[in-house]
Amino acid sequence: MSTSALYNDQGGAEAAVEAGQESTPTSSGTGAAFGLFSTDFKKNEDLKEMLESNKESLKLEAMKRIVGLIAKGKNSSELFPAVVKNVASKNIELKKLVYVYLVRYAEEQQDLALLSISTFQRALKDPNQFIRASALRVLSSIRVPIIVPIMMLAIKEAAADLSPYVRKTSAHAIQKLYSLDPDQKEQLIEVIEKLLKDKSTLVAGSVVMAFEEVCPDRIDLIHKNYRKLCNLLVDVEEWGQVVIISMLTRYARTQFTSPWTEGATFDENNEKTFYDSDSEEKKEQTEAKPYIMDPDHRLLLRNTKPLLQSRNTAVVMSVAQLYWHLAPKHEVNIVTKSLVRLLRSHREVQFIVLQNIATMSIQRKGMFEPFMKSFYVRSTDATHIKTLKLEILTNLANEANISTILREFQTYVKSQDKAFAAATIQAIGRCATNISEVTDTCLNGLVLLLSNRDETVVAESVVVIKKLLQTQPTQHSEIIKHMAKLFDNITVPMARASILWLMGEYCERVPKIAPDVLRKMAKTFTAEEDIVKLQIVNLAAKLYLTNSKQTKLLTQYILNLGKYDQNYDIRDRTRFIRQLIVPNEKSGALNKYARRILLAPKPAPVLESAFKDRDRFQLGTLSHSINSKATGYQELSDWPAVAPDQSVRNVEVIEPVRNPSSSHTPYHSFTSYLSNCQFYHQNETSSDSESEEESSEESEKTSTDSGKSSSGSENSSSESESEQKKKKKTKKAPQKKSKPTHHLSSLMVAVQVILTNSSDHSLEEIHIGERSPAGLNIHCFNTIERLEPEASVTVSMGIDFSDSTQAANFQLCTKENQFSVSIQPAVGELLMPSTMTEQDFTKEQGKLLGMNETSATITMATANTSSQAISKQVLSVANVGVVSSSQNNFHRFAGRTVSSGALVLVSLELKESSSALLTINTEKSVMASMLLRDLKQALTQA
Amino acid sequence: MIHSLFLINHSGDIFLEKHWKSVISRSVCDYFFEAREKAVDPENVPPVLQTPHHYLISIYRGKLFFLSVIQTEVAPLFVIEFLHRVADTIQDYFGECSEGIIKDNIVTVYELLEEMLDNGFPLATESNVLKEMIRPPTILRSVVNTLTGSSNVGDTLPTGQLSNVPWRRAGVKYTNNEAYFDVIEEIDAILDKSGTTVFAEIQGVIEACVRLTGMPDLTLSFMNPRLLDDVSFHPCVRFKRWESERVLSFIPPDGNFTLMNYHVSSQNLVAIPVYVKQSISFFETGPCGRLDITIGPKQTMGKTVENMMVTIHMPKAVLNANLTATQGTYTYDLTTKVLVWDIGKLNPQKLPNLRGSLSTQVGVPKPEDNPSLNIDLKIQQLAISGLKVSRLDMYGEKYKPFKGVKYLTKAGKFQVRT
Predict the structure, then answer these.
(1) pLDDT per residue over B111-132, tens digit each?
(2) For residue A305, what is the nearest residue in chain B, using CA coordinates?
(3) A174 touches B at CB < 8 Å
(4) Which run of H or of E encompasses B222?
(5) Running DSSP on this structure, what letter comes out for residue A636?
(6) Where is this region: Disordered (chain A) (predicted)?
């Protein structure tokens, strides 16, 4: 029914009516038997009814409930036809909810979803960038293969959009399309290539993400954009930073040569830097071929460094891994502090950071040793955090700090968390093997722990002692004896088994005790755990071989017990041992070798970090975290032996630097606070920059010297005269039109003022004082401390003229004096250009008729008849943008007022014999008439 | 990147799911539930899990699990940081981040999630930008909405999204212009049995509440910036100015935000404001133990220590506590075995003391290890590191804002081992 409802409107209406009728009686008394099904069914039914009603509020309510259902994971796909009808709704909230629904269910209902496509296609052409972007977002999220060509087209168009926000959305759409249809790869790469050239910080992160997803191997696309990306990095939003940094890390590893000293492997180098004096390292470096870092390599390192101060832990981590993988050894240390800082963050963050530190600390102890105390465990830490901290502390242990660490470990051993205590014992074992000086101390400590009450602790100690003894069995028969004494009190099977194994292995060192232990074991054999039984059999066998006189009977007794054990492993083992050691007719050649088989020297177990081989993964990655290769993981390549051509990164066209600071810290300078008009503007007005020079700036400013009157009678007349003169011939420099608005607020007009001291003494503390009218909004320049005679200084200030040509008055104060200044703007300077198409222009013009239209027929000066000349003249009067025109005799210009953003449309229609119709459409009628006057003047005069 | 998100409550119910790419069945969460069971405590669930086809990255916050499903390689911190940002945003919008609140506002939360990620990549995470797109609910607005049928969804593109100042919305207006800064320092310390400091450091944060009209440009400077060893900033702070002049220069976001975090250089000795004399012992014979704790002021710079509180996680064997406190009250939670002694203000003349006996389970060996004490305290009007804000200047706007700086010292992870 639901499908037919959509195809046939009438049917749908009928269905709705039906449903409505149905729901009324049932809601009052639903049959108990059908309660479960009918309520569910009815509920969606009444949602459908609400969606088909005429009331916006009902529809909205219904959509909200549906989205609620989606959020809870309940199925509401049968409502698709009813919902999709509302896709063209005017109500923004309703529309958004419908979008949400579409994205979720379009894949399941592909045919019906196609019905909504035309709405999005229309919205893609909307003048509002927000609507364009969200239409593209939804269109690309509809995973319906049939619309791939439409998506492709939309993406291409959006990638060339004037709004960076739309371009950003198109970068996201690339990934979606790629996952929907990988065949589009080539075309998508073209779009990516284009977007990579984008200079907007908004786009950078998203396009690099698309690059990583679609064509991570096309490293050649990055070359030309490398420097730009490095420079933009500080200003990109934090998530984009993470992606860009990780991409640049990979890039750098393929393009630059290793900054690490030649021939020295990671570990060796570490030992050197850590244990030896610096001078030696230097010597080594000088001996090697001198290494000169590529300036681009340096650029990357320099520009990422400030990001270590980011509040976003992911950014800090990505910079840390970049330094780890790319920076010269001695520079890596700067990331330490920041990584340690992250340990203050959430538990999950700690976990990841500790994992990475663990890997780093294996190779470079020196990096984290000063911060050792930050890794001390607190009783409130989660178990996985504790274990990682322990791991790091163990890695950091060396001769100098081992006593501190062992003291700390002693506290942990007593911890109530027994699993953690056991882990600590293992850590002690590792310290003992790594640092030979403390092996004995550790062993003694562990032996003491054998009398601990807790079984886990004892068991773990035994196991660790066993491993330690294996590494150096010579002098430790005392400990083995001690353990034999404790044997009766130890109940943990693993520990008992370990002791028995030790006895057997070193039975020749404790010839008196071992047979006695075997005797005891023979008594309790049946009651032991399997693992212990196996070791008893082993012990018996070994003793039989070394000391058969004393143990022959015991061994046979034990073998007999084993023969009838319930566990087949033990029965097997018994059989095997019997054949091996007891000589009889059937036993073959093996018997001769029994001793060599059982008592072969066994390699000591190596106690090493679990993070030992983690460095095969790039730090900070998922693969590193789970210690196995994740899907889509990209190996970090080794440094190339010879650097590839460096010149590929050169960018031929060097942009004239308009904002002096834009190259390094775009955001951190004021200029880039420019809001969106910057993006529009640069594209549009760069062509007519000549005309700007002539544009008469804000009208002449009158400076009346009120200073005289206020300066008081003491001032000699000569002084006040000079004062008057020096009083600066405040002159206004022509202001660049490309930046019509002031940097701090888009509501302000920027005014550049040159102050020249024409007096004979220096002026101090020049600043702006009182202003009128009282509400006048001025962004003052910073106080000028001192202006020497004949010196001049250029400052810029912002004034909010509130779209009126009323003069702005203010006091310009020096330390001793003040002068009033009045600035009156020309009406044309209260505008800023607006970009629109011819169609939009006509549409907007259509809305501004009647009272909002002012027009006049003028006679054009002959010199002004060419379209170039017209543009020049108009642009010299008003700061407006040219609207491309399809007709030769029509010239259109569009702008907005700076403060209120009201549209100002200027159109000029050329008639015969140099007469023309000049029309201005705007809500600001006063402005319109003033502008008309100015334009008329400009166009009629040659 | 992030494929799907599941919100899971304490008892293991999935009460919200959001997919940014195609739909992933919620059965993927079973792997998580398995790990959850194994971990016993929710805090102990490993944040990164591997399943045959997906990777699960989760955070635990406010008794809720935020579980995200990942399909390909991604930096785990990226996901974790984002999930925390989601939780922060929910908290910011609704005042708290709990199951009840999310369920009550499920549509708004879902819309927020929709805006925050596009195809799994973060789109808008700045609270200021989000608030322009989806307005947070207020009582007044919900009344107005029901009456007029208007909505919570903004219809214009947030200005912040486009500019290079994405954290501040345009057109902010206040009748009272004010800027408050709270310098909050936390002492992290581990003291050993004898009261010697094993480890101590000071971490500080400057929380700001700025309600200023227009686009103010603020500069905050310190008397002694050299104290600050390691810092991290809100994106609004101009790093170059900090590098060169050691001042914080920024255009603030509107409302509450964290301006900076800092760490005080470790060369400075950390003043420990209180000392603790304690003896906890369990007797070998008989099912009991003794506890005696006295707390006194040490280096408080003449300020009063307030909100003193001692928390002790007792060993499992301790059944009950029979204590007397000379000041404040104590509670012992029988199930979680947590003893909390709420002292309040610390009086230097009459030191607070808590003593009495602990009854332990019969037949169980006496606890091996004494529990450590976690100390909480507050000292108003003091930054224990000595950091001082010297001035705050405003450029770019012409009104005179009301400015205020407050100092506070707290105990962070302050632990006394026994």
Answers:
(1) 899 888 888 888 888 887 787 7
(2) B239
(3) no
(4) strand B217-222
(5) P
(6) 1-31, 682-744
